[in-house]
């Protein structure tokens, strides 16, 4: 006698679709990522409260005399409670528009002003967001440093990223004019990366433009980037702005940049950012 098939045994097995988060709910991975970001930002705030920060210095050299440093750029380093550097990529985007971002700018500026006061021959660039122009604590820090040493203004370079400058161009131009009258130089960082409205260049009057590294890395063998970089150099010359190429990593790239008339070069080929003050090391290495 034939046995009747058991539907439960013979029915095809259908795969169960993976659970899809309801609208407005995060996936477990997104939730974990967000929690880690929040924890990192909290660590940054605590580090600032504890003043656990220092500067790393990278040389910017003269293109045609690469053994001569034109100035140094100071990069802020935030440390956790064990003294390890917290990677900026883990928190900078999250804090850029917040008060924590402004506090980072304050700390970077304060450390830069201290270095300038200690070393009379030093010229130093420090990064800032245009948003810090309206932050009272940042302005107070700047004014205090300028009053403490009359020579600091002419040795200080404030770097503003292209994207940040475009957020509030009117505020930036007024601030720059006031500070340039006191001797401070301004650099437009990441030039070419943020799609600057070129009509603003004639109003900004930046002293220096730093050509973004995406155009510089491997430029010796990249015809497209060669054309783009030459165009950026031409624009800078038109507005009487000094040019710096970022992310120079090889001798071949350096030679090409020198040949097209870039004024200064910066990158690992000339030195990595170091928390040891390079100008002190060079003094120690000189013969008696």
Write up what this structure looks like.
The protein is α/β, with parallel strands linked by helices and 288 residues long. The chain has one domain: EAL domain (TIM Barrel), CATH 3.20.20. Helix content is 42%, strand content 18%. The chain contains 12 helices and 8 strands. The chain has helices at 7-10, 28-49, 92-95, 99-118, 136-148, 162-167, 169-180, 201-204, 213-216, 223-238, 251-259, 278-285; strands at residues 53-62, 65-78, 124-128, 156-161, 185-191, 208-211, 242-245, 264-266. An 8-stranded mixed beta barrel has the order 1-2-3-4-5-6-7-8, surrounded by 5 helices. Helix 11 (251-259) links the parallel strand 7 (242-245) and strand 8. Helix 2 runs parallel beside helix 4. The model is unreliable at 1-21 and 284-288 (pLDDT under 50).
Mean pLDDT: 87
CATH architecture: Alpha-Beta Barrel
CATH top-level class: Alpha Beta
- Strand line-up in the sheet with most strands: 1-2-3-4-5-6-7-8
The total tally of domains equals 1
Within CATH, the superfamily carries the name EAL domain
Element-level helix/strand string = HHEEHHEHEHHEHEHHEHEH
The assigned structural class equals: alpha/beta
> What percent of the residues sit in helical stretches (DSSP H or I)?
40-55%
Question: Rg to the nearest angstrom?
Answer: 25 Å
Gap between N and C termini, in Å?
110 Å
Number of helices: 12
Outline, from the CA principal axes? globular
Q: How many beta-strand runs?
A: 8
> What portion of residues belong to β-strands?
15-25%
**Unreliable residue stretches:** 1-21, 284-288
Major sheet attributes: 8 strands, mixed, barrel
């Amino acid at each position: 006698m034939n046995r009747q098939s058991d539907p439960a045994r013979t029915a095809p097995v259908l795969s169960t679709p993976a659970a899809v988060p309801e609208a407005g709910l995060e996936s477990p991975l997104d939730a974990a990522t967000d929690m880690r970001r929040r924890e990192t930002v909290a660590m940054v705030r605590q580090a600032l409260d504890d003043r656990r920060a220092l500067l790393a210095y990278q040389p910017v050299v003269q293109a045609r005399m690469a053994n001569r440093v034109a100035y140094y750029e100071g990069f802020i380093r935030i440390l956790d409670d064990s003294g390890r550097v917290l990677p900026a990529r883990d928190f900078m985007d999250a804090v850029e528009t917040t008060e924590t971002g402004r506090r980072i700018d304050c700390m970077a500026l304060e450390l830069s002003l201290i270095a300038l006061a200690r070393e009379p021959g030093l010229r130093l660039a420090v990064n800032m967001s245009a948003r810090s122009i309206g932050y009272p604590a940042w302005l107070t820090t700047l004014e205090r440093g300028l009053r403490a040493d009359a020579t600091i203004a002419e040795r200080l370079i404030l770097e503003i990223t292209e994207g940040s400058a475009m957020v509030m161009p009117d505020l930036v131009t007024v601030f720059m004019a006031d500070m340039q009258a006191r001797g401070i130089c301004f650099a437009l960082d990441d030039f070419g990366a943020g799609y600057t409205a070129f009509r603003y260049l004639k109003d900004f009057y930046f002293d220096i433009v730093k050509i973004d590294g995406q155009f510089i890395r491997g430029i010796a063998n990249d015809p497209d980037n060669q054309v783009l970089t030459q165009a950026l150099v031409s624009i800078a010359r038109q507005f009487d702005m000094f040019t710096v190429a970022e992310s120079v990593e090889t001798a071949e790239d350096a030679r090409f940049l020198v040949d097209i008339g870039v004024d200064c070069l910066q990158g690992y080929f000339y030195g990595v950012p170091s928390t040891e003050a390079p100008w002190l090391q060079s003094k120690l290495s000189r013969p008696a």
